[in-house]
Amino acid sequence: MEILGDRKFVEIPGSRTHELPPLLVRVTHELKRLDKVMGMAQELIEQEDLLAFTPEPPLELERRRMDLALNVVDQYLAFIGQWQWGHGILEWIRQCETTFGTRLELRNVLSNDVWPHAGRASFVTLLADKDVETGGVSLQKAVGMRLTFREPPPLKCFSNQFLFYLNSTVASSAYETWSAMSRGPVSALPPERFHFDVIHMV
C-alpha cells in the first residue's frame, strides 16, 4: 500500500496502464410526453398549494403558475440527469469488477462482498481523480441517487420539498452510508495506472 499525503493507494504489480471498460452515460432525458410531465407539475403545484392566494389578475396568476411548473420540471429533469449518471457509474463498476477478475495483477485488489459493494466507492474516487467531466453533476450524489432509486420515479411521486430541498441531502446521505460500510482500510486506485473512455449516449 502506497501512502501519499493522507491518502492510501493500492499497490498494483508491474508498471503497465490497465484499460478499463468505457463509462457509458445516457445524457438525454427519456421523456416521451413533456406535456404530460408539465401536467404533473401543475397538479403538484395545485395539491401542495405552492401559490399563495393573492388578489392578482387571472393572467398574472396563470403566468406565475406556469413559471413555477416550468421550475418544477427543470428540477425533475436535473434529478433524471443525476440518476442517469449514477446508473451509468454503477453499471461501469460492475464491468470493472469483471475486468479485475480476469487479470492476474488486479484479481486480488477487490474483496468479494455482496453487491452493491460499499468498497467499490474507490471507483467513484477514481472517476474524480481522473477529473471526469460530468456537466456539473456530483459523482457521489449521482451514485447516491441511483442507490436510492432503482428506477427514476415519475414526477407525481415527488413532493415539492424533495425536488427543491431534499434530493441533494438524500443522495449525499445514501452515498456516505454506502461508502462507510466498506471493510477498512479502503485504498484508492492509482489513477495513472488506469485508462478508460467516457461515452455520452444520446
Rg over CA atoms: 21 Å
Question: Which stretches are poorly predicted, pLDDT < 50 over at least 5 residues?
Answer: none
Class based on secondary structure composition and strand pairing: mainly alpha
Shape: elongated
Distance between the termini: 40 Å
| SS summary, helix count | 5
The total of beta strands comes to 6
What does this structure look like?
With 202 residues, the protein is mainly alpha-helical. It is built from five helices and six strands; from the N terminus they run ββββαααααββ. The chain has one domain. The strands form three sheets. It has a two-stranded antiparallel ribbon. It has a two-stranded parallel sheet with strand order 3-5. A two-stranded parallel sheet has the order 4-6. A hairpin with a 2-residue loop joins strand 1 and strand 2. Helix 1 crosses helix 2, helix 2 crosses helix 4 and helix 4 packs across helix 5. 25% of the residues are buried.
